[in-house]
Structure of PTS system glucose-specific IIBC component:
Amino acid sequence: MKNNKTKLKNIFTLNENTKKRMKNFLQKLSSSFGFVIILMPIFGLFYSIGSLFENNLAGDLFKNFGKILFSNIGLWFCLAIIIGFTSNKGAAVYSGIIAYFVFNIFISVFIISTSANRFNIWFWNNLEEKIFLTKFMFGDIKTFNTGVVGGIAIGSIIVMVYNKFKDQNLIKSLSFFAKEKFVILLTPIVSILLAALFIIIWPIIGYAMMWLGKAVSKSPIGLDAFIFRTIQRMLIPFGTSLLWQAPMWYSSIGGNVSDYELPLLAEYIFRTNPNLSDNTIDAIKSSIQQFTNFNDYIDYLKTNWGSEINNLFDIESNWKNAFDEFSKIEGDQFLSYAALTNNYISIQDCWNVGLRFSRFITGGFINSMFTLPTIAFTILLFEKKGERRKELGVYITASLTAFLLGITEPVEYMFCYTMPLFFFAIYAPFNGLFAMLTSLFKVKVGTLFSTGLFDFTLSGILPTLNNQQTNIWILPILGIIASGSIFLLTYFYLKFLKKKNIKNDIINEVNKTSIK
């Protein structure tokens, strides 16, 4: 019986080599994602500048610069995966670009528009364009909006093909096509096969992701933010936090607005028509359930409330286009920033209809700007007096990196390995707790790159000055509370460790004396 239990345990136990391979794989994947994340500050800055200069050449120029990254996010994730897993081999990156183009063009050929905002592809009929389609690159070619998922899938296939066939030899007459050139020859074939697979399964994935995103968005307020931030910080020592973060920030799991067209329109009407009576507002809200089409709803509003709603012409002319652009965006990071910089859909409108955008982001500002600099300062206090001055520069640099840029790893790596109990049992849940509080207090600050002062200004202060209801004033109050709380927790934990170490030193000294 004991032998059977031992055998069973061995079956489900990972050996050290497997653990190392898994850890190496996850670190490479996380590092690959970093190639895209690092691009976001500059392209986000371009987009922010463009948003400040609406309807002129400068605004269009900078906005289009920003869209180079955000509108083609799949391509950059594809190339990042290839760079990370092939040691930045030029032939592999070249194959990735070819694969991305072939993949999307193959899908686009089979898209058949049937009616307004509907299309068929192979055996799938009557799919919604605004949910499944996007424009390829900057042209009018429509393709599946696979985003990050498609980019990672293409990149992964190219990595596998490259690593398997990069040293492939052929017969002498075909030797010109051997090795890396053979990989390039295979690229269009595997890209077409992958595209065919996506045509079959992507509508299923799309509906599943929308269902999961809706479930997350309807979960109790604060609970989703607590779970997200706690797990995100727990994964930092393993270099895999982006694996957990990416779906929430960049895909439908983190948010999708496709089913909220009329509720968001109603919120815009209420916000821009303060003269409306409570009875009118209630009537407009209750009428939403009777309609599924924008034009039908506008006709209803004209007939019944045309004299009270003073901007129906503007709504009919511009709001629909604004929503159509907005509905193509998905993920908490992209949607929160889009709502904070939109002229027709505000982030408060989104929260009013149950779309709590920024809930996976805002808590990070407390961590970067308040919690981590405080932890660094507290650890510095416990350095030996002779070492404190020598280490001062390191602590200041790490703290400023977190505070200004939101890059938290330099501080976190100071204590995640040396104080694992503190990191996992105190620090990570502490982060989750304050993320929950930012959500409960409805603090709404987005991000372009990370959660430092730079983003706090661009994605928090500027939108607030532009009349967005962000409740940003609550964040520094929570930050000060967090700073004071984490100082006490860190101080007494370090004091406990110091006493424990002194006690252990005394015991060891006594044992040495006894042996002598």
The first strand starts at residue 112 and ends at 115. The mean pLDDT is 84. The two ends are 47 Å apart (CA to CA). The beta strands are 112-115, 118-121, 124-128, 133-135, 142-144.
